[in-house]
Design a protein that fits this description.
Number of strands: 12
CATH class of the largest domain: Alpha Beta
Radius of gyration: 20 Å
Strand content: 5-15%
Number of domains: 2
Oligomer: single chain
Largest sheet: 8 strands, mixed
Mean pLDDT: 95
Number of helices: 18
Structural class: alpha/beta
CATH topology of the largest domain: Rossmann fold
Distance between the termini: 36 Å
CATH superfamily of the largest domain: NAD(P)-binding Rossmann-like Domain
CATH architecture of the largest domain: 3-Layer(aba) Sandwich
Order of helices and strands: EHEHEEEHEHEHEEEEHEHHHHHHHHHHHH
Length: 367
């Protein structure tokens, strides 16, 4: 029989509010943490969040605790759902280190590329004395938005989301802990697989940057995945996708291609990526970002593209196109995303061979 778990949600943005409210409406005991109290003050006063979810679970989700003190959240909760931009994963790990227990299960929603590796390495560097499970989801389970200080809306819930623990031998424990609330989660293999199946790395940064002029001229008033995906732009996305899949192959993994993912997720097919994306009816009506100061660049470049490129260079794969997009992001934002991003050095795996890395993510042991 499954155990009953108390959930803690870290982050009160678009995803965190939806996650906390949904879990509460399922009857779970839920605590919510956000480092800036002003962002959760109304939620604390109301002791919950209103969730709009047409056709699904909706209503007022009552929370057990709302706090800006991470030690309070970790004291009460066993399963910690981290729903923050991946650029904050390292900070969360540093703040949580003194308060973590062996029975804590930490799930990053999502990890992007290398999230669980970075989180675990940060715990190690900060002298964590316990052994919590660190896991990551391949993508976020909801399409959701915040609709006010204490309101959230879920537009869609994904039917299947891979999740993997570090080490992979502990993934069944994670699935047991979250399946009562989310049966949609499935075993994702290991954290290299969930990280290298990061489709946002393919579809977001290059598409935004190759449409930079149009985004700035119209403030995003065009259909991002339709008008923005011309045959030439799609060919660049195909090269990025091919480099990502090749990196995975060099590491002994069979990653899904962008074309395979579109067919799997949306039943969208075509002779090439251009046709397949235009045959995905769900893309129609989605506007482009209103500004280039957007997570598609400032999050996806350092937390998705940089680690893929770093793995490629470590294991002998040419990633010229991905490097070009990273450089373009650096120029657009006048920022060194290589320095900010997840490299094999920061992930603590630079010295590992492919065999040693695989052994580490599967067992948690280093040779």
């Amino acid at each position: 029989m499954s155990k009953e778990y108390t959930f803690g949600v870290i982050g009160a943005g678009n995803g965190g509010k939806a996650m906390a409210a949904y879990l509460a409406l399922l009857g779970m005991k839920v605590a919510l943490y956000n480092r800036t109290y002003a962002h959760i003050e109304v939620i604390a006063e109301r002791q919950g969040i209103d969730l709009l979810n047409p056709g699904g679970l909706a209503g007022f989700g009552k929370l057990e605790k709302v706090t800006d003190k991470i030690d309070e959240l970790l004291a009460d909760a066993q399963v910690i759902m981290v729903v923050v931009p991946s650029t904050a994963h390292r900070d969360i790990a540093q703040a949580a280190t003194p308060y973590l227990r062996n029975d804590h299960i930490i799930v990053l929603h999502p990890g992007r590329t290398g999230g669980a590796l970075e989180f675990a390495e940060t715990l190690r560097q900060n002298g964590c004395q316990t052994n919590p499970i660190v896991a990551e989801a391949e993508t976020f389970i909801f399409a959701s938005r915040s609709e006010g200080p204490s309101h959230a809306r879920i537009f869609r819930i994904k039917e299947s989301v891979p999740v993997a623990a570090l080490p992979a031998t502990r993934t069944p424990e994670v699935l047991e802990a979250i399946h009562t609330a989310f049966p949609q989660y499935i075993n994702g293999g290991n954290v290299l697989m969930t990280g290298l199946n990061n489709m946002g790395a393919v579809f977001h940064p290059a598409l935004a940057m190759l449409n930079a002029g149009w985004i700035e001229a119209t403030h995003g008033d065009f259909e991002f995945y339709v008008d923005g995906v011309t045959p030439s732009v799609a060919r660049v996305l195909e090269v990025i996708d091919r480099e990502r899949v090749t990196v995975a192959s060099a590491m002994g993994l069979r990653a899904r291609t962008g074309m395979e993912w579109l067919e799997l997720a949306y039943n969208a097919r075509g002779e090439n990526l251009y046709e397949a994306m235009h045959n995905q009816t769900g893309y129609y009506g989605i506007k482009a970002p209103a500004t280039l100061n957007h997570r598609y660049i400032f999050e996806e470049v350092p937390m998705s593209l940089v680690p893929i490129a770093s793995f490629g260079e470590r294991y002998g794969v040419s990633v010229n196109c991905i490097r070009s997009i990273i450089s373009m992001g650096c120029y657009l934002h006048n920022t060194d995303y290589w320095r900010k991003g997840r490299t094999v050095e920061k992930l603590g795996v630079k010295e590992l061979s492919i065999g040693e890395l695989t052994h580490y993510v599967e067992t948690g042991e280093r040779d």
